[in-house]
What does this fold into?
Amino acid sequence: MSSNSSRRMRIGDFLLRRLEEAGVRHLFGVPGDYNLELLQQLQDTGALKWIGTTSELNASYAADGYARLNGLGALLVTNGVGALSAINGVAGSYSEHVPVICICGSIPLRSIDRGLGMHHTMADGSWDHFLGAYAQVTAAQARLTPRNAITEIDRLILTAWREKLPVYMELPSDIAYLDIEVPAGPLVLAEAPSDPERLRSSIDAIAGRLSAATSPAILVDADADRFGVAPELMELAEKMQIPVAVINTAKAVVDETFPYYLGVYNGKASEPHVREAIENSDSLLSIGYRPIEVTTGDFTASLPANTIRARGHSVDVGDDNYQAVTLKEVLRGIIDAVPHVGNRAQRHVAAAVASPHADGSAKLTQAAYWQAVQGYLRPGDVLFVDNGTSYALLGLKLPPNCTFIGSVNWGSIGYSVGALLGALTAAPDRRHLLFLGDGSFQVTAQELSTILRHNYKPVIFLINNGGYTIERGYLGKTEPYNDIANWAYADLPKVFRPDTSARSFVVKTRRDLQNALSTPNDTMIFVESIMDPHDAPAAVTTSSNKGADLNYGPRGPQHRENLQLRPPR
Ligand SMILES: Cc1ncc(C[n+]2csc(CCOP(=O)(O)OP(=O)(O)O)c2C)c(N)n1
Ligand SMILES: [Mg+2]
It folds into this structure.
């Protein structure tokens, strides 16, 4: 059949078919009367697998986690109530550059035509509020009609994939079963090729600079992962012996055992050799760099003035800005254009500090905890970090082929539990390790039930320190607003799935932790570690202290006696 031939198909079936052609094999979400008709089509055709979640917020986090490993993710919500429950997570996908398709089963076109008041609306005769809200947090939005369904479905899916950003689509509940003429050929996810002259000129400019440089370096942000160019960056680094640093949002995007991997650049908070290599480079190539306070050591980052700024679809070199180029083609061209360099002076990466041997029966500390976690990591692990003292994971050295899933820019607590469900669904055969605090967990804990329902086998490392320790470093060291209710966290697998085979541990000492860590990964492992509310990695408290100065200014309450958790002196 030729690609421009057409056939008849129901709108809902066509949408599911397009998602499948785009590589989406699972749909997360919560049913509602405005989307049940599409769910029935999913059921009848077996097109995608439905993964029902306990809330739309968690579905949005799951679709994000799924997309991080799969390249594209999708969720299905219902009008208004579902859409707005999911909007925090979708906004996070926007902030973090993750392509997610949010499909909202919306009020029937019949009601719009006739001006009928409907539930899940403002009951004010309007129907555009939620499209308007989503216009703020997505790259493209549309309400489908029988006339626009073909073009809009393809436009939204392609926009999400090309821009690496979320999109929002309303499917009115009375059109999913209507037949339309649809293209017979599949949807092809492809970048438009670069403009040949712009591509050649940008490659010449960058390759020229890198070749002439004596201390070139590469600085990587998350877009290197989103646009899939980590292999090209490593190939370039290897060919020219160029050191590569990442910022925290791009942890593990470059294999940390790669010989030219430097470490994490974070302004003055970086290790000295990383800072030196980036800030004194005479030709720094940055990839998708989007600095914020927590990725720049509180704005102490200082990139050379002549930094080359490459992004997904454009490049800045000196005074020139190149449009209509794709990052992958630019990097491939640079690799071909630059000479082999075999004699650049090697930098020495500081060896890992030897671990002091502590008493196994002593109370577990954050220091001992992260040291034990370091030893537990294996090549290929998928690692999740939520907001809180678990950010300490960013300081560990990761084995090869690990994936790091976090939300450093958006930072919505609880994200990691939903993201874990999504990533487990996308890659069930990898080992998934979740690191989070009690406060973050309490936001999205019930999604554990979905993870258990599907027999997934992650390891969950929960720090029970009685509340929001990272916040105590901003303000309220001992204030009750940073305290939370104590749950029997380790009992929850049993609560959420009475017949579970999950192994739960309540860890109070280093020996308890070692015992938990020696368990095989043939079922879910839930490790609840009890720690002191005032025990926090120095990097976390220092960053919180600085954040308080930035947030509250010189007249703020953080200067008052003992109101702020500080690093031990
Ligand atoms: C949705 C949302 N609400 C509030 C916050 C503010 N916040 C950031 S970290 C944090 C506390 C995290 O506590 P916990 O998960 O227990 O980590 P800990 O530092 O105690 O290890 C809070 C409330 C946030 N980031 N996101
Ligand atoms: Mg806590």
About this structure: The chain has a mean pLDDT of 96. The pocket of thiamine diphosphate (ligand 1) is lined by residues 386-390, 411-413, 436-440, 463, 465, 468-471 (CB under 6 Å).
